[in-house]
Prior knowledge:
CATH class of the largest domain: Mainly Alpha
CATH topology of the largest domain: Four Helix Bundle (Hemerythrin (Met), subunit A)
Low-confidence stretches: 158-169, 771-826, 828-834, 871-879, 904-908
CATH superfamily of the largest domain: Gamma-tubulin complex, C-terminal domain
Structural class: mainly alpha
Number of domains: 4
Strand content: under 5%
Amino acid sequence: MASTTTMNYWLEALALTFVPPATNSTIVGKHKDNFxxxxxxxxxxxxxxxxxxxxxxxxxxxxxxxxxxxVAGELFSRRVELDRDHGEMKWLPDVLDLxxxxxxxxxxxxxxxxxxxxxxxxxxxxxxxxxxxxAEDPIDRRDPIWQVPQYSDFSSDEDExxxxxxxxxxxxxxxxxxAEKVDKGSIFDAPPVEVTSKLEAAQFWRTLxxxxxxxxxxxxxxxxxxxxxxxxxxxxxxDDGFTxxxxxxxxxxxxATSESLLKExxxxxxxxxxxxxxLRARQDTSIMQLVHSExxxxxxxxxxxxxxxxxxILHQTSPTRAVSLLQVLQRIKRxxxxxxxLKTITSQSARNDPVTVLNNxxxxxxxxxxxxxxxxxxxxxxxxxxxxTLYAKSIDIWLHTGSIAKMEAFFVAENHxxxxxxxxxxxxxxxxxxxxxxxxxxxxxxxxxxxxxxGKTAAFLQHLDASPLDxxxxxxxxxxxxxxxxxxxxxxPLPFSATFEMILERHLTALLNSSTSTLKHILETSxxxxxxxxxxxxxxxxxxxxxxxxxxxxMFDQIDRSMDMWNDRFLLSDLLAxxxxxxxxVDANATTxxxxxxxxxxMENRRRSxxxxxxxxxxxxxxxxxxxxxxxxxxxxxxxIALTLSQVRRAKHQLERRANFYIQHMPLIDNGTHINVAxxxxxxxxxxxxxxxxHLTSCVIQPLTRNMRERLRSTSTNSLDDMxxxxxxxxxxxxxxxxxxKRIKPLRDSLISVLDLCIRFSDMITSxxxxxxxxxxxxxxxxxxxxxxxxxxxxxxxxxxxxxxxTGDFASSSDDDDDDDDEGMGEGYxxxxxDEDTSLGQEISKVRNEFKKHVGFLIAGTRAVAxxxxxxxxxxxxxxxxxxxxxxxxxxDSLEGAFPAKRRIGTI
Length: 908
């Protein structure tokens, strides 16, 4: 750092540069001392060393951009050297900062002698003078820029009076004007008498009399005041609008003409006044506040037009220098057209009712566009788009994310149940509010269901952690549809409402198709919908008979041996897991066996009816996305269909595995006729079971399942609601066609009776061969079975009341016999009851008679159900792919072909 002596010398030399040459030495000494003392004790801030470094680095980069790498390298090397050798010097940043400020073109002027070229040469570039400027561009001294403002004691700092200067405005004239004396005593003097009389004459409202004439200028001013909402004398204001005061008349016009013009002005103001009154009301909702702001802007434009008319009158800027009331009214009327368009909104809209306002604006835009009213369309359409954009913001959020935005009112409510189960997400988490009809504008009501479905689909995808929507549909929604419709109405021959509905329908359809296709892909790939349906085919619909034989043969054998543990759920679970171990679609860990004991009878009596199989049911665990499609009621339908098929297989097992060998190879009765009857009954029972099972599996289950899967995969399935509806229609039709529905309980009871006959027939045949006797066990054998003894006693009492009682009405008989079984699905007695002291031949004849009666009832019943299912009681959709009427008719034809009426009626 420089020494103190050197610094003082430099400061004195610098101080001398500010002192004139011819100055006394004493004064020079004072100046040097003061200057040195001020410099040394001056509180200045230190230079920012980091800013200096940034400037140097920026300068280095600038050299590199200018392709001066050598200069940039030199600068870099010197910076590094300074940081290494002189980094501790505190004055170094100040010096570098000074050099940066002194540097001008460091590349061009790298030498000190080159700095001389920066000084302009007076000979080459002379000094510019005002005379030269005025010679090239003459100054217009009448231009307002040369007007000098004059201030007085009566004006504030904000208000200034602009006084036009004379044509010869110059500094000398300005000095002369300011030098003039102002007579302050005359400022507060009263005006002359002439001015006072003119002022009183201009106040026409003070004139007495019934007929007061006013000038046209006065009339125009009064009209403009009226349009501004100010009180006037010429016009009277009321709740109904404005009316002209009969006292006043335009001076140079006839009374009728003056009255007509003033009446026209009052009518125009009466149409504008409701808008002002509506704007005075306070709006609380955000949409109404936005509409309020938009209408205020339209009114502000109208008031600017009124201000321009005022300005034209004050400055007399009219081309003819005359004020015309008729021309003013024409201009005002043209400017008031947007406010007249808003009258449909302000006159019919209640306070804080955005839905009503949206409906009114939509209808007004539709009418204006249909009638080619361009002014109304241009005035109303921006307000409608702004209000609808704000209103539809929450709807678009719902459509894209499935979340309910926090707003004043929304047509979808989220049901807060604790805890919320994802398996009920589609059905229970969201619902339309009770007042949703009042929360949706009329032009959006027809889309409510679709918007509700799209939002639920988006929520479903959100819980599945699906990828967001692609760019093609992310911008679709109510707002985008409204903007697109607004751009098209100029060239569209359709009304605005039709155009908007068409575009909105396309947007919503695209959104729904995109989200549904994504959801279907996830359900298929990640959730395994097809795999689940395949598992149901194996578990409930009997797809693989070999596996079912493996499971049911063991179970049926245990039933025939009267083992109470035949339905032990642990043993059945192991048996099921072993049987389906090679089937990939069936997850043994997802299966659950439920068992129930619905009777206290002995196993010997329970095994005689196929109803015993109702004590076992299989449940399959569903992932929560699939549980939203396959409802618990549908699972119960699957279980009832599986029970029906199992009961048919139970009867078939008895006939083929037990009775077949004894019928073919073992002597039953000495009477050959009875043997033929027994064999005939056997083949009829077996034929019935085979025809029925083949019909249920091949003609009902396979085609209906195939149609269901095709419809689930079809592109016409546009939503999860469609998938749920398709599966619900399918399983309902399947249950109905498989005779498992509760609505056809008489037919099912008759079917159970036939299947019980198969078991009873097998028991009789095997008992006869094994010498167990054909007599009914004595009553004391049932002493341990209270229900059985009570049942036999009841049957005996009925037999004693009369053996000739008609039994033609099978449906009522079945109902009497099954009173202990509420739904006909639980365990019960065999529907075929024997009397005591009967022979084998007699019992076989009874079985044959009962079988013919039940088959006849089934044929007639299925035909009746076929007609009702075809004409009215349909469990299918509009497509008819789940029609079951023809299938009942086919079953009736198959049974009638196997058991003709003559054969059933005649004797053998």
